[in-house]
Fold these 2 entries.
Entry 1:
Amino acid sequence: MAYRRTPAVQARLDAQREAVLQAAVALLAERGYGGCSMAAVAHRAGIATGSMYQHFAGKAELSVELFRTVVGREVAAVTEAAARESTPHRRVTAVVETFAGRALKAPRLAYALLAEPADAVVDAERLVFRRAFRDLIAAQIADAIATGRLPDQNAVLTAAALVGAVGEALVGPLAAGSRPDEVIPALVSFTLRALGDPTQGEA
């Protein structure tokens, strides 16, 4: 007969896995991917290194789950910020403001998400991450086009260009660990100019 975990055992393993992920997030924010070895995460979580393999096959699998955990929070934050706004322009700029603001408050973590050299599996997740932001922005651009607030354009292409530009503009400050005050206003101005008539963003 195959062994089946009891609810109590499963609950304990689930709690341990969550503790491992939280420890990994903390290490990622402090040291980047290079500091998130299985042994280092286990030490931070207060468990034996061997216990890590009950939850993850190796560092690559841990890195992917770690990336998804952190990015899921970022996508939720920008989606919520956009939902509070009443016009497509403001929704797009809310995405940019929120993402950039959160990134600059946690530069080491944001740099790891955006640009730090990592395993190929993490690079693949970065593409998914960028597409999620692209699709959120593209939906707002398409809405603005449909309601005559923006000139006709390829909404997905414009959104992808914005995501790429914002990410590239942030890499320098994030790598330096700095938080220049002018970055977010400049990104908002750039976003409105890229979308079309910037005065429409005030509507």
Entry 2:
Amino acid sequence: MPRTHHFIFFISSFFFFTIFQCGKSSQFGLEDGLSWLNEEDSEVDMVQTRHDSSSSCDFTSGKWVYDQSYPLYDSSCPYLSTSVTCKRNGRPDSDYEKWRWKPHACSVPRFDALKFLGKMRKKRIMLVGDSIMRNQWESLVCLVQGVIPTGHKMVHYNGPSMAFHALDFETSIEFTWAPLLVELKKEAENKRILHLDMIEENARYWRNVDILVFDSAHWWTHSDKWRSWDYYMEGQSLIKSMNPMIAYQKGLTTWAKWIDLNLDPRRTRVIFRSMSPRHNRDNGWKCYKQRTPLAFFSHQHIPEQLVVLKEVLRKMSFPVYLQDITTMSALRRDGHPSVYRRAISQEERQHPRDFSSDCSHWCLPGVPDIWNEMLSALL
């Protein structure tokens, strides 16, 4: 090689090496500069889900971007529960409504109500789970209802279920209460028994549905004081105590067997939404007066529920999609109702700690709207 070429090669190598080192220094400098975000502040449940390499977009990895064009509806939506209408309840700020999730490698398409209803024409969509799944159902109903004229939409209630009907599209968006998926019964002497191997009483609502979205996590981890049962039952065995993650695995396995045996993947799509993170350490005050999303996490913690869930899904023959919203939502401790779960007067605002603070559910408009944008994209 001529001497001139040696010189050019040396200069080029030095140039790229220098850029690489500067890039590394800059990255580490950023983390050091944000060291105020300590481990205690960022200790939330989160998980990264493995995605198929053929997937065109990994929704789980990204950042929250402030977007003035949000929200996509306002808190006057008539289908919202009082406990999530934070603005109507007196929350003074509104920035929590304006954050959009931006994956690193792509974009989540903006929710288009008419397009969504067109895709869902003559279909039943059912969200199954706990009060946070109802939170998501209210969000989805509010996202679509604005394009439907009065008199062409209705909601009806049937036991543990409620359904929003878009009449012109023959589409229903339904919610069914089943926080544990398996059956919880009150039996002799008012003892509450959680049957780990019984599900049909709840599952009868899931038949003939085109799209099923499930969640189940929070109720399984309630402490003895708050848990909803006195005994577990499996077969003929009555069990007073059990490791909650073993119980969760048994309950999910019962659910998985029902799905495998009763549903046809050519007829029904099944999505399991990962757990919604809670920010209620410090007796629920972790989310009070928070105004912006966290920038990043100083460490990662994969909750046991997600480990158990992934293992159960892996063994199923039915193709279930795991929609991972845990990590992205864990950055949003600003998005919870906190004390604004009910209307608070100006005088009461002077003594907010006299009230309980909800750092589990989400203000609407807010974070669940983004879950539903992702859900629309998946469908």
